[in-house]
Amino acid sequence: MKKILTIAGSDSSGGAGIQADLRTFAKHNLYGFCVLTVIVTMDPKANWSHGVFPIEIKTIEAQLNTAIDGVGVDAIKLGMLPTPEIISLVSQKLQTLKGNIPIVVDPVMVCKGDAPLFPEHAKAIREELVSFATVVTPNLFEAAQLAGVSKITTYEEALIAAKKIMELGCKAVAITNVGSLMEPKTSGDLYYDGEETLLIEGAFIDTHHTHGLGCTFAAHVAANLCKGYSKREATVLAKEAIRAGIKRHFALNSYVGTLNFEESFKAIEE
C-alpha cells in the first residue's frame, strides 16, 4: 500500500486540515498519516473566531523524523505551516528526500478572510516551499500573495499570477475559484504547467458552505499523484470529486458548512 503524508494543522471542527486529508487518503485506499503543525480552534461564543496554536518546533521535528525517516513516504501534501520557523524546518526536511516524490503545496495563509496568519508567512512559503511542489494549489488570495500582486480580479490576472508562481520553481499551478471572477460566474479552477493552460469548468453553486474545500481539493490532488496520475489528470480528477461533494453541501452549524464527503468519494469510485 502506498504511503502518503500530510504535514498540516488540526481543524477542531473536523472539516479541514488533517481531518479532511486523512479522510480523503483513506477513501483513495492509501496509507495516510500526518505530522501535526498547529491546532486551530473556533469559538462558538465569539462569532466562530479562530485561534491558531502552533506546535513546538522540536515536536514537529520529531514527527518529521518519525514519518519520513522512520516510515517513508510515496507522496506528501503540505497544508497549514503557521510560522516562518516551521516553514523553514519543513523545507530543510524536504531537501533530504531522495527520489522524485510527488509533493502538493497547499499554501494556507489564512483561516478565513484575507489577512495572512503572520506578516512573513507568504514570503517564507514563496521562497522556501513552492519550488518543491509538483502542484501548488492556492486560492485567489494566496495566488496573489505568491505572485507578489495586490489582488487578482480577472481571469487574465489569474493567468499572469500562475505564470509568476511557476517562475518560483514548481511544476504546475492550480488556482482555485477563478471562475468566480468571470461573467457569468462558474466554479472554474485554473490549471497551468508552463505548457498547457486549462480552465477546469463547473457550474457555480451559490453557497457559503465551503469550509475545508481547499484542503480537500489539495488532498485529492496529492492522492491522485500518489496513485500515478499525471499532474493534469490528478488536478482534473480532484476537481470532479469536489464538484460532486459541493452539490450536496451541508451546514455544520450556524457559522459554517462543508461538502458532502460521501458524494465526493463516489466520484473517485466511478
Short description, anyone?
This is pyridoxal kinase. The protein is of the alpha/beta class.
Describe the protein:
It is a single chain. By secondary structure, this protein is an alpha/beta fold. It has one domain (3-267): Ribokinase (UDP-N-acetylmuramoyl-L-alanine:D-glutamate ligase). Helices cover 39% and strands 19% of the residues. It has helices at 17-27, 57-71, 84-94, 121-128, 140-147, 155-166, 213-226, 231-246, 261-269; strands at 3-11, 31-43, 49-54, 75-78, 103-105, 135-136, 173-175, 189-192, 197-200, 250-251, 257-258. The strands form 3 sheets. It has a 6-stranded mixed sheet with strand order 3-2-1-4-5-6. It has a 3-stranded antiparallel sheet with strand order 7-8-9, with helices on both faces. Helix 5 crosses helix 6. The longest helix is centred in the C-terminal third of the chain and has 16 residues, at 231-246. The two termini are 21 Å apart. The mean pLDDT is 91.
